Amino acid sequence: MEIHLNSKHQSIEVFSEKEIFFLNIADIIFIEINNRKTYVHTVNKVYQSRLNLRDFLDLLPDYFQQIGKSQIANSLEISAINKSFSSTPKISFRNSAKTTWVSRKYYKELIMKKRSLL
Fold first, then answer.
1. Which of 11, 50, 55, 115 yields a CA-CA distance of 20 to 30 A from 62?
2. What pLDDT, on a 0 to 100 scale, did the predictor assign at position 9?
3. SS3 of residue 108 by DSSP
4. Please, which residues have CB within 8 angstroms of residue 63's CB and are 6 or more apart in sequence?
5. pLDDT value of position 83
6. What are the backbone dihedrals phi and psi of residue 112, each rounded to the nearest 5 degrees, phi first?
7. Which residues of the chain have pLDDT under 70?
């Protein structure tokens, strides 16, 4: 059985290949669904989870923001949002070379969330 969220220690159960990890939620930079699988990205590694996106949105703190139909980002870890008029805005994260995109539908909400956290 998967431990969804341990509020005392702020950790979540994820897995990578045959190992189970108890990941500190502050280490998560973004979560995505790809081919019906949930991937939890940290600065250095990608894990899988059995939770779906709705479960994560219900369990994680307010600074986690939906950024697309199949993605959630940790607003505290976003270092830049590159808005291009011809393409989807791109998000960069602190201390990571990883990037992802924010859909136009969620762009304004993400900017407001980011500003409220300053």
1. 50
2. 57
3. helix
4. 74, 75, 76, 113, 117
5. 84
6. -65, -40
7. 1-9
In degrees, rounded to 5, the angle at the alpha carbon of residue 13 between the alpha carbons of residues 31 and 90 is 10
> How many Cβ atoms sit within 10 Å of the Cβ of residue 3?
10
DSSP 45: -
Q: Are 10 and 27 in contact (CB under 8 A)?
A: no
Q: Rounded to a whole number, what is the largest CA-CA distance in the chain?
A: 45
What is the rounded CA–CA span in Å between residue 114 and residue 75? 6
Rounded to two decimals, the pTM is 0.86
pLDDT confidence of residue 74 = 97
Give CA–CA dist 70/73, Å, rounded.
11
pLDDT at 8: 55
Domains and CATH numbers, the chain: 11-116 (2.40.50.1020)
Enter the tokens of residue 27: 């280490």
Q: E-strand spans in the chain?
A: 11-16, 19-24, 28-34, 37-42, 46-49, 64-68, 71-74, 78-82, 90-93, 99-101
